[in-house]
Write a structure and sequence with these properties.
Elements: H1 2-13, E1 16-22, E2 25-27, E3 32-38, E4 45-50, E5 53-58, E6 61-66, E7 76-83, E8 86-99, E9 104-109, H2 112-115, E10 119-128, H3 129-136, E11 138-139, E12 143-144, E13 148-149, E14 156-166, H4 167-178, E15 181-184, E16 190-193, E17 202-206, E18 219-221, E19 228-235, E20 241-247, E21 252-259, H5 264-274, E22 282-284, E23 287-289, E24 300-304, E25 313-325, E26 328-338
Helix pairs in contact: 3-4
């Protein structure tokens, strides 16, 4: 009941706003849009659906247009959402595909769209991971396009060979090979590092205030009931792979990669030290909120439950799906690991 009252007050007091810019055109309404951000995704995406005919703003003037004649692949995109005119940037990127229909669908990618235009044809017996990342961010005639954020693992890639591959293809291969996070931050810097090493601030949630009880798929688990097996692998300095494991043999398997650990016993100790990230007393799953509070991957979600105070905790947000349209707005929050164990 408390949530329902607050929701009704929110509806009366707040007006949803959207300001989308594509190319030189700006508009304040969409049929619907979905934005997906995740530390597990190389490419962050947005998909909009807009009417075939609309009134767009150009340099302070407004005119009616057929939208399919205005937008084109490669146009820069900026999406801002909020309430009562207070807008925050939710997505910046480029148009990658236009699907003609009623309404018109516009698919977008973040700065990875630019990296698709960089061609890699290179064969090396050995190359550092940092050199590969730098290669993927540079154009022959423009130099390095983006800065790197995070701590690139100090390791060597052996037998590196790509022919006519885009930077995105190379980065995806590296991401899978080393099991690391690679994605563009909101500041258009390429983060490269451990999956949960990117930090983006804090956000608070309360089951009585801003967690939708009808869209709440959080499940509370006891540590003793969680079965987990950690398989730890490490690339040694000479390019070989060693492996060790810890945890429950019948548990859900998590494979973690390390670098320059040469001893299997040391690797096993590292695996054991990681178990509590996944075997904990707390929540798992996802939940839905409104646009406020703002949230993005890398934030620490501080979850409070007034009915069960001892169940509160801090969790790492790995993914956020933001929806906006004629039926309202919401965020799907995916907390992945517990931070205050």
């Amino acid at each position: 009941m408390k949530y329902l009252i607050l929701l009704l007050i929110s509806v009366m007091a707040y007006t949803l706003n959207c300001r989308t810019t594509i190319g030189n055109a700006e508009f304040t309404g969409v049929n619907d849009l979905v934005i997906n951000h995740s530390v597990h995704q190389l490419v962050q995406t947005a998909k909009l659906r807009v009417p075939l005919s609309a009134r767009l703003h150009y340099a302070g003037k407004t005119r009616a247009v057929k939208t399919h004649e205005v937008f084109k692949r490669g146009d820069p995109v900026s999406i801002k959402l909020g309430y009562n005119g207070h807008l925050l940037t939710e997505f910046e990127g480029y148009v990658t595909r236009i699907i003609y229909g009623t309404p018109l669908t516009i698919e977008c990618e973040d700065a990875m769209h630019i990296l698709r235009q960089i061609n890699i044809s290179e064969t090396r017996e050995d190359i550092t991971l940092k050199e590969i990342i730098d290669m993927c961010l540079a154009m022959p005639d423009k130099g390095k396009l983006y800065e790197i954020e995070g701590e690139v693992p100090d390791t060597t890639y052996y037998n590196f060979s790509f022919k006519d591959a885009s930077s995105v293809e190379v980065l995806q291969s590296i991401k899978e090979y080393y099991n690391i996070a690679i994605f563009f931050t909101p500041q258009a810097k390429l983060f490269v590092g451990g999956l949960y090493n990117y930090s983006a601030g804090d956000v608070k949630y309360n089951f009585h205030i801003n967690i939708n009880p009808r869209r709440n798929e959080l499940k509370f688990q006891e540590k003793e009931d969680v079965r987990i097996k950690i398989i730890a692998k490490s690339y040694t300095k000479d390019g070989e792979v060693i492996e060790a494991s810890a945890g429950d043999e019948d548990g859900d398997v998590r494979t973690l990669w390390f670098y320059n650990i040469e001893d299997e016993q040391q690797l096993k100790e590292r695996a054991e030290s990681e178990i509590d990230k996944y075997r904990y007393t707390g929540y798992s799953g996802y939940f839905q909120t409104l646009l406020q509070p703002f949230a993005k991957p890398g934030m620490k979600a501080i979850i409070e439950d007034p009915d069960f105070p001892d169940r509160g905790g801090e969790y790492y947000i790995s993914g956020v799906e933001t929806r906006f349209g004629m039926s309202g707005a919401s965020r799907k929050i995916e907390p992945e690991i517990k931070l205050n164990i």
